[in-house]
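Pasting as-is:
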Amino acid sequence: MSLIVAEATSAKPLFSYRKFWAQRFGKAPFLPMSRQEMDELGWDSCDIILVTGDAYIDHPSFGMAIIGRLLEAQGFRVGIIAQPDWRDASPYKVLGKPNLYFGVTSGNMDSMVNRYTSDRRLRHNDSYTPGGEGGKRPDRAVVVYAQRCREAFPDVPIVLGGIEASLRRIAHYDYWSDKVRRSILLDAKGDLLLYGNAERALVEVSHRIAKGGIKQDFSDIRGLAIVRDATPEGFVEYPADDLDAPDEGRQRKRSQDDGEKSVIRLPGYEQVAGDREAYARASRVLHRESNPGNARPLVQRHGDKEVWLTAPPIPLTMAEMDAVYELSFARAPHPSYGDAKIPAWEMIRHSITIMRGCFGGCSFCSITEHEGRIIQSRSEGSILREIETIRDTSKDFTGIISDVGGPTANMYRIACKDKETEALCRRPSCVYPDICKNLDTSHDPLIQLYRKARAIPGVKKVMVASGVRYDLAVRSPTYIRELVEHHVGGYLKIAPEHTEDGPLSKMMKPGIGSYDRFKEIFDAAAQAAKKKYFLIPYFIAAHPGTSDEDMMNLALWLKKNNYRADQVQTYLPSPMALSTAMYHSGFNPLKPVRRGASEPVDAVKGLRQRRLHKAFLRYHDAENWPVLRDALKAMGRADLIGPGKHQLVPTWQPAGTGLGGEGRRVAPKSSLRKDGAHKFTTKGVLSKKPR
């Protein structure tokens, strides 16, 4: 029997633990954020205090609410400190000293991604803050919050979690400082770090700390990062350099059959900080060792300490997923926020999470890195019950469920046909370069779910707003027809990301032909339904492996297909992603990384080139025409400058756009509308609509 099958059947069920003694206090209407609330609940102290960079919204779409309610269900008294001031330790004392530990997270997003654009410009809004106000969390929030918790109560253990900690668990390239940083566990001086979807580890760690404190061995718990002085006796170390050897798979199986305890040694922090090829190799190994069925522990030296990662967590069963999402959530923001609008809450308040994980493996995306590639789905009954709960308890429910989905819209209950095969698989993606023959791509369970959801009395419409994986959807024309006839509005957003094979191969995305097939089926379904629906494709500018010519060809494709992209995404290197390794190292970790024989990748780093790539995506915006003309001339493609349909930009420039005179913007009053948008009256040019 394979490792994953054996461990999945032996993994301790999430809700089988003997509850902590404090269960006698019952369930809180909201987890307390003040001493007054604690007093009203009859608490003299909290067992666990969670510190988060998000506003506290007691809803299962928010990680801190799931963690808090799960711990409450285990019998612990849990308090929340949401978006505390980080300038001194006082806000971290408001609930008193926790009996067991502080749990620290930046929130639903990495604090640096939340705070800065891909051009490293400061954002002035934050969707997870009341009023959408920016600046309510510090940069590198996990590190800062942990430091303040330590100042407040030096002897209280600190457990790190959430996406910021998860994606920074080893030495990682940090785009904002343009350097390789140490594991966040060391920088934050935490005691433990839980990575990925951490329910199993969280429950086990909490009960162990309650019984024996923090000074014990946690290394048998999956999904953890811990700090050690050295590799324990009895472990066999394998260097990362050898993992692409032709007989590595046979060696791995033989060592497992022999019961060998093995660990893979990644290149150390000092090495990856100074050697870009070593960084790419470490990234490749980390992602190869991500399948819970065959992954081994990883160890990485940081100075005189070892950061030890245990194997990835075993996915939750369907029954466990149901139980987690049916915990006693208040399904509302904490009352202390009053009538303040929290944009993220307004967007998801009537949406349903039906699954976790993604087997797409897109190299620029953190979903697979954080949630894993094994899909964890809820049962149909649990999802339908949540829709009924929204209908019956939400005062402003108008009959519209805004989304049923998750990381993707259409991976619900899709899985490998054989668990033994799944446990042995090393592919980073189940759908690239082609859909795996072992993947059951049936959309029937999802179609049946949609039909039952929209048949619930009081439900007028069930929308699908999550991203549709179109290369999967074309396997089920019936699913696409269901979308068109019942579950989309005037348009559907999907993400081909590019048209050219060069960047697509580095993104691990399918060729544009998959998009074309999806569009053909979608348009035919819309025509049959007599509805005017449109696809809105998303594209990425400046991804590693993208040349200026690639962006030019994408712009020509956009013009040929009459697309004008208003929302443009410039590639942002997030911590630990494979694309980030390409960006930083200049090597391709999707291929073997060997000294002197690694595949090089050109990264688009200069601000001028990144803006040029973005300008190609918005070829129709007159503000971009001057830079595009210069670029086309430099590329030897001046033939694309002119008024023809086959040409990209015209030779003339409307008044009030681009640069005029001595570098000043020309905006004569006659060219301005009352709303401030430029009005172009030149023949053949449409008026520019305000965005």
